[in-house]
Structure formats: structure tokens, C-alpha cells
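Data card: per-record layout.
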Amino acid sequence: MIPRIHKQGSHTLGLLRYLYGRGTHEEHIDPHLVASFDGMAPDPGRDPSVTKKDLQHLLDQPLALLDPDRRPEQHVWHCSVRAAPEDPILSDEQWGDIARRMVAATGIDPGDGAGCRWAAVRHADDHIHIIATLIREDGRRPDHHRSGKRAQAECRLIEKELGLRQVAPGDGTAAKRSTSAERHKAERQGRERPAREELRETVRRAVAGAISEKEFFDRLAAGGVLIRQRVAPSGDLLGYKVALPDDRNDDQEPVFYAGSTLAPDLSLPRIRERFSCNAPSRNRNTPADAAPSGPATARRRAATAAWQAVLVIDHGEDAQVAAHIAAAGEVLDALAKTSAAHTRTELREAAFAFERAARSHVKAERGHDRALRQAARDLVHSSPALGRGEDGAATAMLIDMVFFLVTAAAHWHAKKEHAQQSAAALKAAAHLRAAYRAAADAPLAVLYQRGRRVPRPLRQKQAAHLRQAVPELVERVLAEPGWHALAATLADAEAAGHDPAALLAEAAGRRELQTAESVSDVLVWRLRRMADLPADAGTRSSLPPPHRDVATAASPSLRPLGPGRRR
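The structure for this 567-residue chain is written out next.
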């Protein structure tokens, strides 16, 4: 159940006309009162002898207690309360009780006999609107400070009592939601999302891995948005606004949104924090704008950075973890931007969901996230993946590792009691699971066919290695279709000079495997990354010799779940 305190207004009658009107899309059906301050307010919706002006006059009577020059200009209080789509339809009596609880909790009518006058209007099955006049019966102003937080707390209690969907409590770090007017406008224009959300995604993608203001604004311009910069008399840049070229107001002027109104971390000062602490740090002899040789290489490097970040989230200080989680959002944005068509939708939804998980009240200590920001930059500059061959297989490998990263973030947020962030990360993980399946089908099928051609004696030898590494799971793995892909991978590792038994034991020990939907799939990607094997079985590796990252010494007790795993 979501309560929303709207901006205070000055026209009681205007709001009543909206509440009792047909709505912008004829969506207001049978508008009527379900409760009021005295239980006897006239109802223009059900009583034909009553007008909206009658109700407005009754609600505004307390204003007469004040001299005209003491009356507040913004005296109209407006709160909407909406149930979740899956909640049962509540009766008028239930909504009336909810309205009385909301005005009491927010201080509008605390039950002392002299509260504000208010009325609750229901014009749809799933929500009500409460309108009140911000002058009490005794002529004083109501104590409605922090009414939004009070309303949220009361809704959490109502959800439990009525068995409704439990909504995670907010902490004030979420991006501002699109208004109903913005949503309706998007519907009229045939947009997938409101302009505010489209712009937030465009700005996030523009900042992913960027190292300077110039690069950031160049990317914004390339994204097709209008940019308006706020410049001080000294010439210093103070801020920026963006607009969609075809999103205009009634005067046919572009509707601009400041970065800070799109999301708290998209203001210019917050974006500058990323630039000041995150210059690329790959190699002193490597140009700052150098890109990997192709999308496959970028994805493999990003997979390694994601795996290392998992360990930081498991063991790092809070400020370092917050920085890595924020940078993980940049990797997701860059991956969605450069992904092939068959994975793009799910990756975009994953990035959209994880955006909420990237912010909390734990201040990120920038600088520790260089590897992830560099990975995001590499993805952007390496050109989009075609989704076939090595770059398609490397995409599956990267999604596998990013799933670990996102799930680790969800667990960290849960431990910190960041309910909304944890829920957002888990939602992103669900989309990553779907993207992984789309990306992994083709490369795993190739490995499967190669595995079936592995000579029987060699396959028996590899089964013995498997029995030694994970004896408790060996029968399950041998029964999985993915065993053939794992057999091919073990053969590739041995041909590359690795000890298959030692490599398999190390891969199995890094994270638990009991909850995996396909143990063999999980081991395939671990082995191919650790042994620096081509992600695509038909591609000869052109990468440098494998680097031993800090994950090599990971404790087996570190256990985030992979995309082939159940929670």
C-alpha cells in the first residue's frame, strides 16, 4: 500500500473537480465519499442535490476563523493511498477506516476533537484521495511535519492487519517517482516510460564509466537529449538540465529536468565525485581512452572485475562496499547499452531495477571502485556485441558473474536492513537470470556437442576428477545435460596445460553448489574464466596469459548465488 503526500495547493474546488471528474482517460468510475471529518459531509458523487461547491464550502469554513492576511495561501492538503495490483478489492468501509487512520497518523485529524476538516473520495477500486483544509477547528495549524513518513509507517501496519502486500519501507534515497500526469502523458504519446524515467536511464548510461564532464555531456548529446547548462558569471558550470526533444508543455517548450530531480546521485556535484576519484588505472603506458580489442575482451575483463567486487562486498568496509555497488550499476547500464538484441530487454530491465539498489545512506568512498568503472568504460568503448561466437559466450560469462555481484549486493543490503535496496537487487537478479538463459543457450549447446564427442576413457577420467572435487554432487552432475559441456571444458583446460583436477577443486571450492539449478553450468563458466579459455568453444584465445586475481584465494564460505541457482 503506497501513500503519497501531494504538493499543497490553494484551490479546494479545483481539486474536488478533479476527484469527482471523469479523469483524463475516463478512469474515474463512480466517485463518492467513503469517509469525512464528521461522517456527515455532503457527497456530490451520490447525492444529486449536492454540489462540489457545497463540499468545498464545508471544508474551507475554518479559514473564516483567521483574518484574511493570516490565512495560508497553500491551505489544501492532498494525500492518495493506493493498494498493490495483487491486493484484494477493499470495501468502502475498509477504505473509510484507512482514511481515518491516515489523517490521524499524519496529524491532520489526530482525534482531539479540533482537527482539520477532511474528506476521502474513492473513484477507483484500488485507491482513495484524501483532501483536507490545513486549519484546525480551533484556528491553529495542524502538526503534520514529516507526514509522508508517518503515512508510510501507518500503511505498513495496515498491510499486516489486512493481509495485503508488504511494501518495503523507504529511506529517502529513492529517485522521485513520475507523477500521474507524467504517466498519462506518456500513454498519450505512446511512450514505453514517462519522460522522467527515459531521461534518468539516458543520463545513467551517459555517466557509466565516463572520466570527465566533457565525455559525459558528449554522450548525453549523442543520446539525443536536449541539454541546458547552468553557468556562473565566473564561467564555472553549476548544473545541468535535460529534456526529450518531443516532450513539450502546453506552450510547446521542451520540459527540462535537472539531474538532481532525476535521481539524487545524478546531480552534477555527485557525478563529479566519480570523475575526481576514478581516472582509469589499467597501465601507465596505456592511453586513458584506450579500449579493449573487442566486445569479447571487454566482457571477459568485466567478468573478472565483477568477481573481485563480490569479495569486497563480502568482506569490505561499508564505504567501500557502497562504492562497488554503485559502480555495479554502471556496469549493468553499460552492458544493457551494448548488448545484443536477444538479451537487451532483460538486461535493460535489470539495470532499471538495480538503480534503486545503487543508493543508500551509506556514503560511497569513491576510488575503490576503479576496476568496475573501468569495466563499464571498456564495455562502452569496445563496441556492441553481436551476440554470436566469442562475444556472445563472453556475454553469458559476464552475466553469470554480474548475477553473483548483484545477489551479493542484495544480501549486503538485507544485512543492513535496507529493505527497498535489497528488494531492487533481487528484482534485478531475476532479470539477469532470464538474460543469462538467452545468452548461454547457444555457447553451451556448442560445448554440449563437443562434450558428446570426447572419447569415453577421457570422459571417465574427468568424471573421476569430478568425484574427487565434489563427491556429494557427482551423481547429480553426471545426470545433467550440462555434464557434456563441462566435459568439453575440462578437456580444453587440460589441452591448455592446466591440471583439470586441481582447477576443478578450486572452482568447486569458491562458492557452494548445492543450490544450483545446473551445477555443471556454474562450473563451466568458472573454469573457462579461471583457465582463461575462450568463452566460445570454437574460438582460439587471443588473450594474454591468465592473471591470478584475488578471487583465487577466496574462502569456500563466501556464497552468493549464481544465475543457475535457486534462492
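Known properties of this structure: Residues 419-452 form the longest helix (34 residues). The chain has three domains: 2-162, 180-277, 295-553.

See the next section for split statistics.
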